[in-house]
Design the sequence.
């Protein structure tokens, strides 16, 4: 096709616009693999890009969307051939490289991961970058020595995309999961997907003490700022927190006390430029360690045309779990 449907972001007099439009195939950027995109998803970063609330987009026009699953149409890369099922997350898609909210994408073959056996393309995007990030967090905690025997773990922003997958995965692995959320009305949902306890985020919103009562052996934090500072101050001796988000801000009003008096580790999680071997490991673990029934419970499907509307909703905290976007 000479043109295809895409969510196009353009500069406007005030900020940016995001609309469903026809995009010329000739405008696709350099890459050695062309993919027919079947499914994408909605992540917090997508919401920032779609609304222009943060300078996520670095070139215009831009096709939004930071991840996709689909089928290879054409390839000059030795690892891929037409018909291969692939997943792509990060690498600057939707920021510096034309992204995933489109019927076609052209990317570097080195960015792609084979769709794991047992996962459909839809499943992969029900997981998406948020779920992939959650699994990277779990892998980092395990590498640091965390196990269910270590004690309870905390997940912040638990009703969101990262938090929902982290809660489901950690519970399946046998952890006692304490889910922190600003939406206590979602307590039943969080318990259904594996949370043993649900706490109000207000418990973690006051200015953090250098050291507070030890409450958990580890955790996954997608919130940042004061919440992360409180998590660190409440982490048990030798424990670790995986930091993977900044929904509340990029600051960290903490002290060195948890690190030098309790040996706590702060583990930084990056999903955008993550090395390919770690990507493969994370996706294989997601295929085995994420309960499909729970994945279905946390997933809601929308058509491509509704992406801009839902982008605003995710920033407003009105999205529970994962949103999958049906492209074709």
Sequence:
């Amino acid at each position: 096709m000479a043109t295809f449907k895409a969510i196009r972001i353009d500069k406007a007099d005030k900020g940016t616009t995001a609309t469903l439009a026809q995009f010329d195939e000739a405008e696709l950027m350099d890459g050695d693999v062309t993919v027919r995109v079947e499914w994408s998803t909605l992540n917090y970063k997508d919401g920032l890009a779609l609304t222009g609330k943060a300078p996520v987009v670095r070139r215009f026009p831009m096709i939004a969307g930071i991840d996709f699953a689909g089928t290879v149409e054409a390839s000059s890369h030795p690892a891929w051939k037409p018909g291969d099922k692939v997943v792509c997350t990060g690498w600057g898609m939707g920021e510096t490289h034309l992204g995933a909210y489109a019927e076609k994408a052209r990317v570097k073959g080195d960015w792609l991961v084979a769709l794991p056996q047992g996962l459909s393309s839809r499943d992969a995007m029900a997981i998406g970058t948020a779920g992939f990030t959650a699994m990277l967090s779990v892998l980092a905690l395990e590498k640091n020595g965390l196990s269910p025997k270590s004690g309870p773990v905390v997940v912040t922003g638990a009703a969101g995309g990262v938090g929902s997958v982290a809660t489901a995965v950690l519970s399946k692995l046998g952890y006692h999961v304490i889910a922190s959320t600003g939406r206590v009305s979602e307590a039943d949902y969080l318990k259904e997907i594996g949370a043993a306890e649900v706490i109000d985020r207000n418990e973690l919103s006051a200015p953090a003490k250098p050291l507070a009562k030890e409450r958990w052996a580890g955790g996954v934090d997608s919130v940042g700022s004061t919440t992360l500072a409180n998590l660190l101050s409440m982490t048990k001796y030798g424990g670790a927190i995986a930091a993977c988000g900044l929904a509340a801000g990029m600051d960290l009003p903490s002290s060195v006390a948890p690190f030098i008096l309790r040996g706590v580790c702060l583990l930084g999680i990056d999903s955008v430029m993550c090395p390919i071997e770690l990507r493969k490991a994370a996706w294989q673990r997601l295929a085995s360690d994420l309960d499909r029934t729970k994945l279905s419970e946390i997933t809601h499907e929308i058509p491509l045309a509704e992406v801009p509307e839902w982008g605003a909703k995710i920033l407003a905290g009105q999205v529970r779990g994962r949103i999958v976007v049906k492209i074709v």
